[in-house]
C-alpha cells in the first residue's frame, strides 16, 4: 500500500496504511458482490460457432420477462432440449441497485425505441418523440423497470375471459400469479391470495426517514380529499393509496431473469446464446415454423431449427417486428415492404400503453437539506456494506394511488398515481428529464426551480385507454427499428379521463398539509400554450406537451377466438394459421391491465409453460389440445 503514503502528506509506519488498505479492499469486495457474473448461464454462442447447432425441441426468442420464465420451466424436463436466444447479455451492476433503475435507459442495455411524432402527445419531447425503454439484457424490461409488483385487479382478467378467452379469467390465472411468487410480508400473507416459495421474491423496499416523511405528507393530503389509505389492495377493490410490494430481496432487484435463470445454469438441456439478434423465422411450405435466423455478436449469421415449437417472447414491440419481417402480418403492409406473405394477420395492431402526465410541485418548507456530496458518499457506503440507504429503494415511487374519476362508488380505477421526490439541487432530476426525453425548454424551467427548492412529481396515469396504436415496419432491413404510432388521445375520452386525474393532483395544492409544507404547483410555460393560467385549455395543452409513456406496451398480437378477425393468437397462444409457433409475452394481452404489467407478463409465461408441457406430454403431438 505504498501508494497511500505517497499520496498523503503525513507519513505512516504501517498500521494506518493497513487499515486504509483493508477499508478499500472491503469496499471493492462489497462492490463486486453486488452482482455476480457467475450466477448466470454461460453463453453458448462460442460453442455454437465452433460446433454448430443441433435441432432443439423448443427455441425461445427473447430472454426477457417471459422468456426467462419459459427457459426455466420448459427445461425442468430433462428430455426437452431448449435454446434461449437473447439479443443482449447479462445485466450490468446498475440493474441490481434499486435507486439506479433508470440508469440503463439510453444505453446498450436498452433497445432505445422512440415513438413517431404525434399531434396530441409528447410535444415537449425532443423531436416530439417519446422514449420507450425496453430491456436488452437477460430479464428484459424486468431488469430495468421500477420493480413494482402489482397484478392488476379481478375485472382486468375477467374481461379477457368475457372477450372469448376461457381459462384467462381471474379465478384461472390466480394460481399462476401465486406460482411465480415468494411473498415475504408475513403480517399480510394470505394463502388464498399470495404465493409462497416461488422464484420471484415479493417484499417491501427498504425506506429511509426522508422518504417516509414525504410519503406521510402525501397520504395526509389525499385523506383530506376523501381518499383512503389501505394496507394492501385486495382483489375485490382496487381504490385508494398504499405502499406497493416489489420484486426485491436484501436491498437488490430481483428480475425474472435473476429469479428463473440462475437455477438453470447447470442444466445440460438448456443452451443460452447471448448477443443473438433474431432476424426472421423461417417456415415450411405447409406453414410450420421450422428455423430461426439470427446474427450472433453482430457478425455471424446462424440458423437454429426446432423439432417442436418456436416461442416468440420478444415483447410487444419486437415480437410484431420479428413476425412482420418473417412474413406474418397485414398483407397490404408486407406487400409495400416487399416481404413475401406467409399469413395475413393483424400483427402490430391493438397497441395499448399507459400514458401519463406529470405534475410538478415546488416543496419549500420541508426540513430536508439540499443534496450534498457527503450524503451521496454515505448512501453509497451504507449500500455497499449492508444494502441499506436510499440506494436500496426507489424513493417514494412505491406509494401508489388508484382512483375512478367518474364514479366514486366504483370498485375499480381508471387512473393510477406514482410519486417522485427530488431534493434541492438533486443531480437525479436532470438525469430523469434527460432519460425521459424532455426538451431544453422544459429542462431549464425545472432544473432552475430545483436549484431553489425541492421538487415533488406526481404522475397521473391513464389505466384503461380506448385509443389503439400500431407497430409497423420502416424497412425490411432487420437492423432498422419499427415505426411506433401510439395514437395517444386518439379517442377524446382518454384525454378527458387523464385531465380529471391531473385535476385531482392539482387539488392537492389546496390541502392543509400541502400548504403547511409550502407545496405549490409549478406552472410550466410552453410557447404554444397561450391560454389563461389554470384554465381547462391550459391543462389540455399541458397534457399534450408533457404526456409520455410509462413503458407498459401490450396487445400487438392479440389473444382472441380464432373466429375474431382482430386475433393473432388463440387462447393457447398459438399463432393462427401457423403450426409450431406461439407468442408468450405482453403482445397477447387483449386489453391492458389496470396496473404495472410485469407481474401479469410473468403470470402469462407461467401459464403458457404449462400449456406447452401439456401439449407435448407423452403420447401427444403438440397440436392435439
UniProtKB/TrEMBL annotation:
Query: MF terms per GO, please?
Result: flavin adenine dinucleotide binding; oxidoreductase activity, acting on CH-OH group of donors
Keywords attached to this Swiss-Prot or TrEMBL record, sorted alphabetically, are: FAD, Flavoprotein
Q: Which InterPro entries match?
A: FAD/NAD-bd_sf (IPR036188), GMC_OxRdtase (IPR012132), GMC_OxRdtase_N (IPR000172), GMC_OxRtase_C (IPR007867)
Annotated residues for binding of FAD: 141, 278
Cofactor(s) this protein requires: FAD
Q: Which residues form the Glucose-methanol-choline oxidoreductase N-terminal domain?
A: 315-329
Keyword field contains Flavoprotein: yes
Domain of life, per UniProt, equals Eukaryota
Family, according to the entry, reads as follows: Belongs to the GMC oxidoreductase family.
Query: By what name is this protein known?
Result: Glucose-methanol-choline oxidoreductase N-terminal domain-containing protein
Amino acid at each position: 500500500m505504498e501508494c497511500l503514503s505517497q499520496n498523503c502528506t503525513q507519513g505512516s509506519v504501517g498500521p494506518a496504511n493497513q487499515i486504509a488498505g483493508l477499508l478499500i479492499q472491503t469496499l471493492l469486495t462489497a462492490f463486486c458482490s453486488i452482482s455476480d457474473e457467475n450466477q448466470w448461464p454461460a453463453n453458448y454462442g462460442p460453442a455454437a460457432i465452433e460446433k454448430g447447432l443441433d435441432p432443439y425441441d423448443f427455441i425461445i426468442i427473447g430472454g426477457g420477462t417471459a422468456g426467462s420464465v419459459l427457459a426455466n420451466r420448459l427445461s425442468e424436463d430433462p428430455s426437452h432440449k431448449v435454446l434461449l436466444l437473447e439479443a443482449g447479455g447479462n445485466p450490468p451492476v446498475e440493474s441490481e441497485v434499486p435507486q439506479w433503475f433508470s440508469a440503463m435507459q439510453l444505453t446498450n442495455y436498452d433497445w432505445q425505441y422512440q415513438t413517431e411524432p404525434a399531434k396530441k402527445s409528447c410535444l415537449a419531447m425532443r423531436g416530439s418523440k417519446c422514449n420507450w425503454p425496453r430491456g436488452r439484457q437477460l430479464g428484459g424490461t424486468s431488469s430495468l423497470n421500477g420493480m413494482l409488483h402489482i397484478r392488476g385487479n379481478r375485472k382486468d382478467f375477467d374481461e379477457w375471459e368475457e372477450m372469448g378467452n376461457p381459462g384467462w379469467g381471474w379465478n384461472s390465472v390466480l394460481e399462476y400469479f401465486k406460482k411465480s411468487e415468494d411473498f415475504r410480508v408475513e403480517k399480510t400473507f394470505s394463502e388464498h391470495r399470495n404465493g409462497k416459495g416461488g422464484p420471484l421474491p415479493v417484499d417491501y423496499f427498504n425506506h429511509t426517514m426522508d422518504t417516509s416523511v414525504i410519503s406521510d405528507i402525501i397520504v395526509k393530503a389525499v385523506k383530506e380529499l376523501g381518499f383512503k389509505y389501505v394496507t394492501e389492495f385486495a382483489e375485490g377493490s382496487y381504490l385508494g393509496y398504499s405502499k406497493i410490494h416489489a420484486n426485491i430481496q436484501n436491498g437488490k432487484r430481483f428480475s425474472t431473469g435473476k429469479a428463473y435463470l440462475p437455477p438453470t445454469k447447470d442444466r445440460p438441456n438448456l443452451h443460452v446464446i447471448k448477443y443473438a439478434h433474431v432476424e426472421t423465422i423461417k417456415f415450411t411450405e405447409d406453414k410450420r415454423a421450422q428455423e430461426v435466423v439470427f446474427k450472433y455478436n453482430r457478425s455471424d449469421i446462424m440458423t437454429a431449427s426446432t423439432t417442436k415449437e418456436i416461442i416468440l417472447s420478444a415483447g410487444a414491440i419486437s415480437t410484431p417486428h420479428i413476425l412482420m419481417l418473417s412474413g406474418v402480418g397485414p398483407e397490404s403492409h408486407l406487400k409495400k415492404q416487399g416481404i413475401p406473405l406467409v399469413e395475413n394477420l393483424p400483427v402490430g395492431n391493438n397497441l395499448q400503453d399507459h400514458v401519463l402526465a406529470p405534475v410538478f410541485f415546488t416543496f419549500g418548507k420541508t426540513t430536508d437539506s439540499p443534496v450534498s456530496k457527503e450524503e451521496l458518499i454515505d448512501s453509497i457506503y451504507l449500500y455497499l456494506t449492508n444494502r441499506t440507504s436510499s440506494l436500496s429503494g426507489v424513493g417514494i415511487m412505491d406509494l401508489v394511488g388508484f382512483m375512478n374519476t367518474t364514479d366514486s362508488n366504483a370498485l375499480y380505477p381508471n387512473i393510477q398515481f406514482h410519486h417522485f421526490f427530488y431534493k434541492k439541487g438533486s443531480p437525479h432530476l436532470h438525469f430523469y428529464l434527460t432519460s425521459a426525453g424532455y426538451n431544453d425548454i422544459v429542462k431549464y424551467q425545472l432544473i432552475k426551480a430545483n436549484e431553489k427548492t425541492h421538487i415533488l412529481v406526481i404522475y397521473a396515469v391513464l389505466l384503461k385507454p380506448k385509443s389503439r396504436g400500431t407497430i409497423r415496419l420502416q424497412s425490411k432491413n432487420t437492423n432498422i427499428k419499427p415505426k411506433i404510432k401510439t395514437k395517444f388521445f386518439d379517442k377524446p375520452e382518454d384525454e378527458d379521463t387523464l385531465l380529471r386525474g391531473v385535476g385531482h393532483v392539482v387539488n392537492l395544492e389546496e390541502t392543509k398539509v400541502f400548504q403547511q409544507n409550502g407545496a405549490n404547483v409549478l406552472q410550466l410555460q410552453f410557447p404554444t400554450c397561450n391560454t389563461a393560467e389554470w384554465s381547462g385549455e391550459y391543462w389540455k395543452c399541458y397534457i399534450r406537451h408533457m404526456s409520455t409513456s410509462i413503458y407498459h406496451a401490450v396487445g400487438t398480437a392479440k389473444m382472441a377466438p380464432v373466429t375474431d378477425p382482430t386475433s393473432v393468437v388463440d387462447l393457447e397462444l398459438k399463432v393462427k394459421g401457423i403450426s409450431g409457433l406461439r407468442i408468450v409475452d405482453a403482445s397477447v394481452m387483449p386489453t391492458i391491465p389496470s396496473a404495472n404489467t410485469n407481474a401479469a407478463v410473468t403470470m402469462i409465461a407461467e401459464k403458457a409453460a404449462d400449456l406447452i408441457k401439456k401439449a407435448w406430454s407423452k403420447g401427444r403431438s403438440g397440436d392435439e389440445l
